[in-house]
Amino acid sequence: MPLMATEGNHLGDIVKQEAQGRYSREAVTVLAGAGQARVLEIGSVLGRITKGAATAAAVAGNTGGGAAGAVTLGAKAKLGAYTLTCITAAAGGGVFKVVDPDGIRLGNDLTVGQAYVGDHINLTVSDGAPDFAVGDKFTVTVAGGAGKAKAVDFAATDGSQQAAGVLIAKVTAPDGVDATGVAIVRDAVIAPSKLAWPAGATSDQKTAALAQLKALGIITREEA
Hints:
By secondary structure, the protein is mainly beta. Helices cover 8% and strands 39% of the residues.
């Protein structure tokens, strides 16, 4: 009995409608493979790396001799400078309020010598000599990312956890080399059953990603 070939998706299977003049499309730089080629299939839901490294620095004129350690990002990290200001001085310690780049105070304060864990930034401010004084400050600056695309990564904190588009042709980025692709990034109708998701994506994660695409004008419908 002859083997039956399985035909893959075509553009028309995924994109049911798009704006005139290819306004819905945009060229994207696909992140280089790491250790092996990065292969993204047609219909892959993309995320973009919009956040880079975060660095902490003491503000000139601080009384305290303590220092801020390495910073990692949470899923809600914003671009720009967070401000940490000492609001309670204590021997061998102290408490800092944390204000985000938009001037909003975060719900949990930072205690000197303890790991500060949040959905924006994570770090430890160590004690030093002399002790911190009320008004001492640190800044934590979150730099912008390169905007490169990869498959949406729900565990990431670099911005690629947010759905940002749908790839319309297969792309292979070799190990260590970026590649160019084309994606639907705005004002289109797509078939949700034809989308390609990362392994292990849950129904809730897919629903959230589709809502993020809808905010970009990309709506889902099987027929249009």
